[in-house]
Please model this.
Amino acid sequence: MDNILTGLTQTQAADISMSQFALSGAAALLLGLVIAFTYMYNTRYTKSFVVTLALLPAIICVIIIMVNGSVGTGIAVAGAFSLVRFRSVPGTAKEICALFLAMASGLVAGTGYLGIAAVFTAVMCLAFIILNKLDLGSKKNSDKYKSFRIMVPEDLDYTGVFENVFEEYTSSYELVQVRTTNMGSMFRLTYDVVLRDPSKEKELIDRIRCRNGNLEINVSRQATSATEL
Model:
């Protein structure tokens, strides 16, 4: 307890020369640029996010250098960083991974292990490029995964109307959404399906048109929900 109280009252970071500070900061900034250019490779990105990846390691590096030896300052910095989530929008899993990589590189550089930071960043960036090239995790035969948005009149009991048609043309199907539209005079049904034979998609649409009164049918590729990682 005495050690903790002493650390809380300590306000000065451990002594560090300007040359060490400049070297660590420059190394962290260089690593951030490497991470930023790696993320830009074969990936959709925004300018603000790329700039953030380039600067984040240097910021973390400086914070780690200044916090070194001061428990009180460390607690204050942790509290400040915890507020960032209230100003953040949901991101993809790839963006979160890139941010953690940038923070980890800056942390290692801030502790003085510049060689380890360089090797770690190089290995992770290389792995990022290779996994993107391999297209790891993508759905095979993605043209089979479709979403059908079918308009039906309000007087049509849609329960069980399209099931036997989907059973004939799809290997699996699921009604994921029912929504009223056109001032409540119509329903929009959304089905996620897996087609048995993508070449028979038009034939399936024609069968559905015979049952929904030839109203609008929209077919699109299934998209992962924005709330999922």
